[in-house]
Amino acid sequence: MRKVTAVVIGAGHAGLAMSKNLAERSIDHVVLERGEVANTWKTERWDSLRLLTPNWQSQLPGHRYEGDDPDGFMAVPEVVSFIETYASTVSAPVETHTAVSSVAVDDGGYRVESESGSWSAPAVVIASGGFNVAHVPALAEAVPADVVQLTPTHYRGPDQLENGGVLVVGASATGIQLAEEIHRSGRPVTLAVGEHVRMPRTYRGRDVQWWMDGVGLLDERYDQVEDLVRARKVPSPQLVGTPERVTLDLNALSALGVRLVGRFAGVDGGTAQFSGSLRNVCALADLKLGRLLGRFDEWAAEAGLDGELPEPHRFDPTEVEVSPALTIDLASNNVKTIVWATGFKPDYSWLDVPVLDRKGQVRHEGGVVADAPGMYLMGLNFLRRRKSSFIHGAGDDARDLSDHLAAYLDERSSNGR
Fold first, then answer.
1. Parallel, antiparallel, or unpaired: how do β-strands 109-114 and 100-106 relate?
2. CATH homologous superfamily for 134-340?
3. Residue 414 confidence (pLDDT)
4. Angle between helices 76-89 and 13-24 (to 10 degrees)
5. Beta partners for 6?
6. pLDDT digits (tens, 9 = 90+) for 199-255
7. Residue ranges per domain, the chain?
8. CB count, 10 Å around CB of 254?
9. Residue 36 CA from chain centroid, whole number
10. Are 187 and 167 in contact (CB under 8 A)?
11. Partners of 109 in the beta sheet?
C-alpha cells in the first residue's frame, strides 16, 4: 500500500491541469491512467476529427498553443502531441497502463486499487471524463441482426462500413460530422434529428467561439444559471473545425443530399420509426440561434465594435420537407449500417463510494462531490463553467478545485488527522 496525499484518476487534459495545480501547492500526488497520456484521443476518436475550438483557445495552466495557425483547428495527432507535451512540461507524476479497479472509503480517506497496486490518500480527483461509454438507446435491441451498429467510439472512417445506406442517429456535433463524411464516401445517409443546437462557425467575420468568449457565455458559472440540470444536458453545438472554417448545419447537409428525418423512435419488424417533431425541433433551434446572434450584436454595439465588424445578419431557416418520413424500411432502403451518435456517459463502475444518483451520475456541487469529503471531479460538461469540458476550461476549474482541496487538507491537519 502506497500512501500519497492525492490520487488523480485520468491523464487527459483535465487530470493534467489538476496535477499542475497540485504541484504548485506542493501537494504530493499521483496520476493514474488506464492507458497512455491522452489515451482517449489515441484510441477512441475517428481519423478525420478535429477540435471544435480554434487553436488560440487551446491552453492549459502554463501551456498554450504557439503554432502559426491560431485560427485553425487541431487534428487528432496534434491534440495528442499538445497533451503529451504538456504532461512532459509539467513533469506530471503519471503512472500509465494503470487501470483503477476500485475506489473505496478507507480510514477517513480513500483506498484506490489498480492493476499496479494500491494507494491510500485523503483526497481523490476523478478526471476520467464524461465520455467513457457511448450511449446507445435500448431501442437498438430491436434492430435486425443483419444491420451493423456502430458508435463513434469504434468508428474510424467510412471505409470500414459496408456499401449501402447508413442511418446516423443524432444531429449534434458528432452526428453531423459523421453524416457528412459518410455521405461524401458515396453511401446514402439518412440523419435522424432530435433536439440540437444550431451554431454557425463564423459570424460577422469572427469565429463563433470568439463571440462566445467575448459575451461571457463560456465563463458563465454553474451557480449563475437558473436550470443547471438542463444546462448540463444541452447537446453539443453543430460545429465542425475545418481549415476553411465552414458552417455545417442541417441546410448544408440537405444540400449535399443527406436525408433528414425526425428523432429515432424505435424499430418494428425491420422498419425504423421516427418522430413527427422534425419541423418543430428545427424551428426551435432556429429561434434560439436568432436569440444568440442578437446577444452577440448587443454586446458588439455596447463594446463599440460595430465599426470594426461587418453588419449583423441572420441565417436562412432550416429547410425541412413538408412531410418528413415517419418510417423507413431498412431492408428495402438498403440500410446496412446504423451509427449511434446519441451521446456519451461516464463510467463509474469502479467507484465503490455511495455518491451516485439514480441515473448513475456522481452527485456534486461544482465538482465537489457530495457526501464524500476530499473527493472531486474534473472534465465534465458545465462542471463549474460552461467551458468546463473544453481544453481551455480545465485551468480555471483545476484552480478552484485545488484551492478547495488544499483547504480541506488544512482542515484535516488542524483536526489532527
1. antiparallel
2. FAD/NAD(P)-binding domain (3.50.50.60)
3. 84
4. 20
5. 29, 123
6. 999 999 999 999 999 999 999 999 999 999 999 999 999 999 999 999 999 999 999
7. 2-132+346-414, 134-340
8. 16
9. 19
10. no
11. 106
Q: Which residues of 78-111 are buried (b: 16+ CB within 10 A; e: fewer)?
A: bbbebbbebbeebebbbbeebebeebeeeeebbb
Q: Cell for 365?
A: 456541487
- Look at residue 416 in the predicted model and tell me its pLDDT: 67
The H or E element containing residue 187 is none
Longest dimension (CA), the chain: 72
The pLDDT of residue 298: 98
What pTM value is reported for the model? Answer: 0.95
Query: What is the C-alpha separation between 305 and 310, in angstroms, rounded?
Result: 10
Q: By the 8 A CB rule, do 34 and 97 touch?
A: yes
DSSP secondary structure letter of residue 310:
P
Low-confidence ranges of the chain (pLDDT < 50): none
Instruction: Single out the residue of 385, 284, 274, 286 nearest to residue 327, CA to CA.
Output: 274
**Residue 13, all three cell numbers:** 487534459
Sheet of 100-106, strand order: 2-3, 117-121, 109-114, 100-106
- Provide the grid cell at 391: 481544453
pLDDT for the residue 132: 83
| Residue 263 cell numbers, joined | 428523432
User: Which pLDDT does position 272 carry in this prediction?
Assistant: 98
What DSSP character marks residue 197?
Answer: B
Residue 84 grid coordinates: 503529451
- How far is it, in rounded angstroms, from Cα 198 to Cα 207? 14
Q: How far apart are CA 369 and CA 126, in angstroms?
A: 10
State the DSSP string of 348-374: -TTB-SS-B-TTSPBPEETTEETT-TT
User: Under 8 Å CB-to-CB from 299, ≥6 apart: which residues?
Assistant: 211, 214, 215
CATH topology of domain 2-132+346-414: FAD/NAD(P)-binding domain (3.50.50)
